[in-house]
Amino acid sequence: MDRLRALLNSTSKHLGSCGLTMKVPQSIWILDSEATDHMTPFPSYFTSYLKVSKKKLITVDNGDYVPIAGSGNIQLYSSSSLT
Predict the structure, then answer these.
(1) Could you tell me which residue, 57 or 33, shows the higher pLDDT?
(2) What DSSP line would sit under 55-79, residue for residue?
(3) Where does the Retrovirus-related Pol polyprotein from transposon TNT 1-94-like beta-barrel domain lie (predicted)?
């Protein structure tokens, strides 16, 4: 993260966007309060799950399209959940 900040501070022009990819343990979630939905590649995390009957694609931040396999709920803590 420090290297990313240093790179951003060293640029002379404004960067429109920046991405960061990193490996994190499966138990860690990075939540974005401005995201419409959250995604996971781990079906076992779902407390309820419905497979999509028709192929649907969603647009991710970089403009690429990715297929949706299904949707459902994930329990984060006993008092909150992602829907």
Answers:
(1) 57
(2) EEEEE-TTS-EEEEEEEEEEEEETT
(3) 29-78
